[in-house]
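call fold(seq) -> tokens
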Amino acid sequence: MLKIPKAVHDDIISHAKEGFPIEVCGILGGRDGVVSAIYRMTNTDQSNEHFTMEPREQFSVVKELRTGGLEMLAIYHSHPETPARPSEEDIRLALTPNVSYLIVSLAEPGRPVLNSFRIAAGRVEPEAIGVI
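ret:
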């Protein structure tokens, strides 16, 4: 189970709403399965169907995580118009090992849905989220 503070959970959803109709993306850092930091990233694709994190930002965040003694726990992105489950492209591009992949869906704008998955070698396993 991935444990996420309510403020971070709400920030992910706010980020998705602010970026609509473009997909947004970001990184969550922490330790021992407990998130303590959120890093909003730039989607260089500026697309409503896929995302690519800005490489310099990504490198900077990884460096900051290491300096702070944190690990990358999750990568998140939004699906502005589709359900909160990995697309074929999401599965194919899930190349970072040992992280959770969070997807926030705004398919029903009044009811955002945030789901977490573990993805490895093309296999997708749902993961529980504990909002703390």
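The mean pLDDT is 96.
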